[in-house]
TrEMBL record:
One of its GO terms (biological process) is fatty acid metabolic process. Belongs to the acyl-CoA dehydrogenase family. This is Short/branched chain specific acyl-CoA dehydrogenase, mitochondrial. It catalyses: 2-methylpropanoyl-CoA + oxidized [electron-transfer flavoprotein] + H(+) = 2-methylpropenoyl-CoA + reduced [electron-transfer flavoprotein]; valproyl-CoA + oxidized [electron-transfer flavoprotein] + H(+) = (2E)-2-propylpent-2-enoyl-CoA + reduced [electron-transfer flavoprotein]; (2S)-2-methylbutanoyl-CoA + oxidized [electron-transfer flavoprotein] + H(+) = (2E)-2-methylbut-2-enoyl-CoA + reduced [electron-transfer flavoprotein]; butanoyl-CoA + oxidized [electron-transfer flavoprotein] + H(+) = (2E)-butenoyl-CoA + reduced [electron-transfer flavoprotein]. Homotetramer. It is found in: Mitochondrion matrix. InterPro entries: Acyl-CoA_DH_CS (IPR006089), Acyl-CoA_Oxase/DH_mid-dom (IPR006091), Acyl-CoA_Oxase/DH_mid-dom_sf (IPR046373), AcylCo_DH-like_C (IPR036250), AcylCo_DH/oxidase_C (IPR009075), AcylCoA_DH/ox_N (IPR013786), AcylCoA_DH/ox_N_sf (IPR037069), AcylCoA_DH/oxidase_NM_dom_sf (IPR009100). Residues 259-407 form the Acyl-CoA dehydrogenase/oxidase C-terminal domain. It holds the Pfam family Acyl-CoA_dh_N.
């Protein structure tokens, strides 16, 4: 796990000086920059990069055109140990750091943001809820499956509850040792391929959000996929409407306790936003990586188009924006690992990375000219995929509202 430590140092005595602030020479402690990673994290990045390039890369266009995730890609993610990044070895996971999960998400997004978000939701939302809020029995039952073979899905949003996620209408009532769920969910990522679902429902509407409870259900309990959405971008990532008609869930499948769903969702989405920031960061870098080399190969008026000042300045500006998104994302990840507050930083990272993703991927199309507008290069796909960053796991306006509240609290 990445830790930024401050080592104690001893002052070196010097001759007395005229001013006290010059009486000793400052020795800098060994502080890591934000692009320093452990050997394990560096090796992981290289391994994921190879997997994404060699296994995912050849399938990207076909999956996008078919709007379907290739089962072999999902299987590959499990085989590579990328579906239980933070899960303990005892439960079949890699037992790695949160930063490791962010690295995985970023590297996958450089090749295909659809695959990246599948892995992201599975790790930062589903697995984390079991690790943080599940009982030992629940962890022993579900975490090995999630690490080795079964895709997970996080079911919160509904037709009438988007940004106001806790206006949800799905209800659960107790009958003996069972909870009976009725309602529907919308915009649910991974839901077409998933076999394990975390479902948020209200067990007592009179208590408002304090009645919201988190349940775990397997697909074969009777979860119905009503509609698979056809989307602008991340088309290989499934987004479905789910219906629950008297869905029977055992009482022992309540996660975190009755009425704790609100707390769970709020806390987990803060972490998830760092994952989306990493996805948008990787997406932007992927578009940059595809388009910039072309600008130095394509010649007009006797010189490479990337060397014209107007183009060169755009590329330089995009590189600066990529670096700011990277620093915000990894700063939020490290703060989370260090046990520091990170809600504001996660909102900043998610907001800015989504802005940069749209901007850089859009410019990348223009840098490649006519060929960039075709589906042949895959650059236009990054732009289509980028738009969702401003919408899911909290819209850009919600992120700005969160940031503004922290600023108000600090200064008012």
């Amino acid at each position: 796990m990445l830790r930024t430590g401050i080592r104690a140092f001893s002052a070196i005595r010097t001759r007395p000086a005229l001013r006290s602030f010059t009486s000793s020479r400052c020795i800098r402690s060994q502080l890591n920059s934000l692009d320093i990673f452990t050997e394990e994290e560096t090796m992981l990045r290289e391994a994921v990069r190879r997997f994404a390039t060699d296994v995912v890369g050849p399938k990207v266009r076909e999956m996008d055109e078919n709007e379907q995730m290739d089962p072999a890609v999902i299987q590959g993610l499990f085989e590579q140990g990328l579906m239980g990044v933070e899960t303990s070895a005892e439960h079949g996971g890699a037992e790695s750091s949160f930063t490791s999960a962010i690295i995985v998400i970023e590297e996958l997004a450089k090749i295909d943001p659809s695959v990246s978000v599948l892995c992201d939701v599975h790790n930062t939302l589903v697995n984390t809820i079991f690790r943080k809020y599940g009982t030992k029995e629940q962890q022993d039952k579900w975490l090995p499956l999630l690490a080795q073979s079964k895709l997970g899905s996080f079911c919160l949003s509904e037709p009438a509850s988007g940004s106001d996620a806790f206006a949800l209408q799905t209800r659960a009532r107790k009958e003996g040792d069972l909870w009976i769920l009725n309602g529907s969910k919308m915009w649910i990522t991974n839901s077409y391929e998933a076999e394990i679902f975390l479902i948020f429902a209200n067990i007592d509407p009179s208590k408002g959000y304090k009645g919201i409870t988190c349940f775990v259900a397997a697909k074969d309990m009777g979860i119905k996929i009503a509609k698979k959405e056809q989307k602008l971008g991340i088309r290989a990532s499934s987004t479905c409407t789910l219906n629950f008609d008297d869905l029977k869930i055992p009482a022992q499948n309540v996660i975190g306790g009755e009425g704790q769903g609100y707390k769970i969702a709020i806390e987990i989405l803060n972490e998830g936003r760092i994952g989306i920031a990493a996805q948008m960061l990787g997406l932007a870098q992927g578009a940059f990586n595809k388009a910039v080399p072309y600008t130095y190969e394509r010649k007009q008026f006797g010189q490479a188009v990337g060397t014209f000042q107007g183009m060169a300045f755009q590329i330089a500006q995009a590189a600066v924006e990529l670096e700011t998104a990277r620093l915000l994302t990894y700063n939020a990840a490290r703060r989370k690992e260090e046990g520091k507050s990170f809600t504001k930083e996660a909102a900043m990272a998610k907001y800015w990375s989504s802005v940069v993703a749209q901007r850089v991927s859009g410019q990348a199309i223009e840098w490649a000219g006519g060929v960039g507008f075709t589906r042949e290069t895959g650059i236009e796909k990054f732009w289509r995929d980028s738009k969702i960053g401003a919408i899911y796991e909290g819209t850009s306006n919600i992120q700005l509202q969160t940031i503004a509240k922290f600023i108000q609290k600090e200064y008012s």
